[in-house]
Design brief:
Keywords: Isomerase
Number of strands: 13
Radius of gyration: 21 Å
Family: Belongs to the UDP-N-acetylglucosamine 2-epimerase family.
Oligomer: single chain
Structural class: alpha/beta
Strand order of the largest sheet: 3-2-1-4-5-6-7
Distance between the termini: 13 Å
Largest sheet: 7 strands, parallel
GO molecular function, one term: UDP-N-acetylglucosamine 2-epimerase activity
EC number: 5.1.3.14
Shape: globular
Protein name: UDP-N-acetylglucosamine 2-epimerase (non-hydrolyzing)
Length: 375
């Protein structure tokens, strides 16, 4: 049985790397890896960390590329690869443009699609944009749905997806996280090397969403500035996204503020270790809502809604929104109220136990054996 995995961005690569390794090690499965390089440098860092060598690299990344260009380049590039390899199943992940385009390309070749991290929904097609619709559309192209949680499964059932092709697996990001964070590590970044993580309370920040550009981002950074000015035992670390608009806003509001460190993006291994040493997290990222709770770190989500409500329900994350005063107040609460902090830090992570890849491979193998027997 031939299984092709396709991904193109750093977050996909992180979450799919342990699955590719599991497929490579599974008897009876021929594993093929194709990357689109929707992200180039950041993708390569993850491939190197997990020691993965793609069989195909579409290398589509261009400066200032549009969503339409990414979609069309993935469609055209994958067509030849799929015709040559003729895989039984193509695995895609999550909600990127690569995910949707790869699912569509596979459908055009009448190849079965497995959707990893299926069933997440905000029910607002413009938030996150374009990720919400990428995920929804991929869900209706897919033949196998690997849903992290029961809620994700129920979302799919409401969309009339057949229950027999939905598998609750947990999230593969926990598999990746646990593999990386268990290894001994010392920071190479000069800023991080100088911080005394034992005596300082470190808040790690990420902020990059398209829908937060502009006033929302100014509010988020304004709240962070107030925290730094009020609490002299707090260090705030923001690995700045490469988007020039994000960097312009961050520099305007945060540059030069004492104990606020604007650093370049970190590779996955140092970033995971930074999370593990942080006091809490402020983020508009999806993946960090899953990762940080596995490390016992409270998460404040600076968005109006989240497609990961399980974390909010479990108490590991709180939706802080995009209002400056609210973000500031909720952050301050974690700094001054030990009980509130402990309640979040000790909540049970709803996203799995680190065995998601094992469950996905088992489901794929079972499908392969069933197909062989029926023939």
């Amino acid at each position: 049985m031939k299984v092709m995995t396709v991904f193109g961005t750093r977050p996909e690569a992180i979450k799919m790397a342990p699955l590719v390794k599991a497929l490579n090690e599974t008897e009876g499965i021929e594993s093929v890896l194709c990357v689109t390089a929707q992200h180039r440098e950041m993708l390569d860092q993850v491939l190197e960390l997990f020691q993965l060598v793609p069989d195909y690299d579409l290398n589509i990344m261009k400066p200032n590329q549009t969503i339409s260009q990414i979609t069309s380049n993935v469609l055209v590039g994958l067509e030849e690869v799929l015709k040559k390899e003729k895989p039984d199943v193509v695995l895609v992940h999550g909600d990127t443009t690569t995910t949707f385009a790869a699912g569509l390309a596979s459908f055009y070749q009448q190849i079965k699609v497995g959707h990893v991290e299926a069933g997440l929904r905000t029910y607002d097609k413009y938030s996150p944009y374009p990720e919400e619709m990428n995920r929804v559309l991929t869900g209706h192209l897919a033949d196998f749905h690997f849903a992290p949680t029961e809620r994700n499964k129920n979302n799919l059932l409401r969309e009339s997806i057949n229950e027999n092709i939905i598998y609750i697996t947990g999230n593969t990001v926990i598999d990746a996280l646990l593999e990386v964070v268990e290894k001994p590590y010392e920071f190479e970044d000069e800023t991080l090397k100088k911080i005394n993580f034992e005596q300082r309370r470190v808040i790690t920040v990420t902020c990059h969403r398209r829908e937060n550009l502009g006033e929302n981002m100014e509010n988020i950074f304004g709240a962070i500035r107030r925290l730094a000015e009020e609490f002299d035992d707090v260090e705030i670390i923001y690995p700045m996204h490469m988007n020039p608009k994000v960097r312009e806003t961050a520099n305007k509001i945060l540059n030069g503020v004492p104990r606020v460190h604007l650093i370049d993006p970190l590779q996955y291994q140092p970033f995971v270790n930074l999370m593990a040493k942080s006091f809490f997290i402020i983020t508009d990222s999806g993946g960090m809502q899953e990762e940080a709770p596995a490390l016992g770190k409270p998460v404040l989500v600076v968005r109006k809604e989240t497609e990961r409500p399980e974390a909010v329900e479990a108490g590991t994350a709180k939706l802080a929104g995009i209002d400056l005063e609210t973000i500031y107040a909720m952050s301050k609460e974690l700094l001054v109220n030990q009980a509130a902090y402990d309640e979040m830090a000790h909540a049970v992570n709803p996203y799995g136990d680190g065995h998601a890849c094992e469950r996905i491979v088992k489901a794929i193998k079972a499908y392969g054996e069933k197909s062989t027997n029926s023939n």
